[in-house]
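Protocol step 4 of 6: structure prediction from sequence.
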Amino acid sequence: VDVVRADHLDVGDDAVLEALLARHFAPERQRLAIISENAGQTARHVRHAQLATRSDVLAAAAAVRSARAWLIAGGTMISDYQGLGFPFRYTRPLLDSLRRCRKPHAMMGVGVSSVTTPAGRAFFRKSYDRVALFSVRDDHCGNALLDLGVAQERIVVAADPVFAWRPPRELAAGMEDLLETAAGAACRIAVNVTHEEWRQQASLYEAVARCCDRLQAELGAAVVFFAADCRPGPAFDPAAIETTALRMRQPALRLPVQNYRPAELATFLGRCDLVLSMRMHPLLLGALGGAVPVGIVRQPKMVRVLEEVGAGAQLAAGTLAAEPLFEACRHCLQTLPQ
């Protein structure tokens, strides 16, 4: 494979990319180009590769023409629950270019949500018909593709690529100091919240805030907020952290908002006792490091990853309340291996 499309949108995208490159690419034998939404960030953790941004039309076009094959890696690439804008219309220009150039292309480690609208199903049939192979991360994704009319022989079901990754132990500047600040606490709890489709549900963030207050007051925990998707604007993690922190009666620690390498965040989360998150990959990265994951489930993929991890707890975002969230966290902390 010559070219990987892996848009940097959050740390999960980066973790999938690093996991795939670590296991499947030999830079001394293969020429690799990466088209990234944020090439500067991708360059921090991918060496031996030519980089271009999606907006760099000439570089992207040159990559399409010169490559023997394309791999579209990671992310939920098939879904219409947020309408057709993302991911369908976002991905369509690339798929159209590959069709015109007759380049073989596959999707690896991607998520698939049920496509229910007539417009979404028609869009899929038109734009994804030339994808040679879909490697998806669980049976639910595979069944969703079958429902869309994809032949069984074009579907491979495998675990999320990050399960097979063993990140190196490393911390970014300032992480060790923050861990030291929390060293005197009875336990360390890393908390990640996001807005996206939930930002109008004030009761969710109120429940997280009340739970965090109790974790600090009753259990002596140090609560540390962290962002997995650092994009500005009201939809993403920094805004959600601010929303939650303003509702708390006691201040909490915060990991500075920046695009950390997946290995750095995995190491940091592994130094905590529990990871509470509304996102899938922070739960997985924390579990890989030894922390107990507690998921505020907003998408089915989070349920399946927590089942595969076989530890922690899960609570539905739509009905979240402070008391059951606190009790779930307390139970997980009380049953930690000594």
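Step 5 (inspection) to follow. The radius of gyration is 20 Å.
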